[in-house]
Amino acid sequence: MRRTVGALLRKELLVELRTLESVPGMSLFAVTTFVVFHFALQRSSVDGDLAAGILWVTLLFAAILGINRLFVADADQGGFDGFLLAPVERTALLVAKALALLAYLVALEIVAVPAFALLLLGPSLGQAMPQLLGVLALGDLGIAAIGTLVAALAVRTRARDLLGPLLALPLLVPIVIGGARATSPLLTLGHAGDPPTRWLLTLGLYDLVFGLIAYALFDFLLED
Amino acid sequence: MAAVQVEGLSRHYGEREALDGVSLSLLQGQTLVVFGPNGAGKTTLLRVLATLLRPHAGEVRVLGARLPGEAWAVRGRIGLLGHEPLLYRELTARENLRFHARLHDVAAGRVEELLARVRLEHRADEPLRSLSRGMVQRVAVARAVLHDPELLLLDEPRSNLDPAAVELVDPLIGSASGRTRVICSHDPGGGLAEADVVLGLRDGRPALLRAAGELRAEEIVELYR
Lengths: 224, 225
What we know:
The complex is a heterodimer.
Chain A: H1 2-19, H2 23-40, H3 48-69, H4 72-76, H5 79-84, H6 91-119, H7 129-154, H8 160-183, H9 197-222
Chain B: E1 2-13, E2 16-27, E3 31-35, H1 42-49, E4 57-62, E5 65-67, E6 78-81, H2 93-103, H3 108-117, H4 133-145, E7 151-155, H5 163-173, E8 180-184, H6 188-194, E9 197-202, E10 205-211, H7 217-223
Parallel strand pairs in B: 3-8, 3-9, 6-7, 7-8
Antiparallel strand pairs in B: 1-2, 1-4, 4-5, 9-10
Helix pairs in contact in B: 2-3, 2-4, 4-5
């Protein structure tokens, strides 16, 4: 299984490196959204709940762009059939795609978080950065699990560009809520405290539940 | 022993019957050539035999495994060459073949051997999108036989190939390969020449099933009228 996941992930990252279809689009979308917020709110800086909300909503919509592209090359170029003909565990594709999406999200955040700090955020991120990265990682795991599941479901339909976001958004809302609540104290002037444990646990539990659901359902999604 | 045994196979897409009551038997090492006009169900039959589509009725056995329940047992023993090359356009020929080699647990040396056999070593590091359709088809042939499959499922395998390329790929997918083959063809003369058994399909139903030696090309042409 590890060998198969390695082969699939390597292929996935190679295709992204050659086409640059996901990460640049996601990053550009996030930066543009921060600029729009900057002017629309008519404020030079934000903090606390508002800052956390803006950050997570922007990351969510940017992630949707990546989720929508996740299986397109496989569906359009016969990659699904090539994979299904091989004597390998189907779950390897789920793991590889989720890891690829996770990598895209990390790349997105490497661009988006500094851009957010520069364009909108009032308080300095320095002290809160390690905890912020922890909360982002918890959110990313959930987005990767749900995103991969939804993308696999949507990609074989005719309305995949519409169905993907329609299915993903309601499922990802709890991650945005948990992520924003956990992040809010970190983005408050004077650093109001640590992320609330109950929201971290909520995020962790949500990740676990959807990881298991994706594991249980993925084989059926690949079947005819 | 029968490599492929099909009894009363039916498969539909929504309301439309793509295959209806198809039966056939093919011994190991034999070649079945399937003829029929566009939309007759040839590709659907190949995809069912490749385990990519579930039969909706009837019994299908491939290499001794009953489909769809035992499909896992034959994956990796089937080579499929369809209309789509099942290759990524942004990857090079070598990267594509290495990717499939890893999925099938095949040594990297086999990739180099096949690149040489389809004479693409010199273009092997160019993205597939920059190759001609004939070259992509040669890579697809290499992909289909990479894992040395017992059963080859070929959908118009020589399309896009010039005569020199046909000579290159024939040892891999032709009768000389010694493999059991199911071939979809629109070429009555050429198809009949390499067939042991001929199946004719019309609107998903079997219109003809006979040993190739008992058939004339004109009878196949009749299928298209």
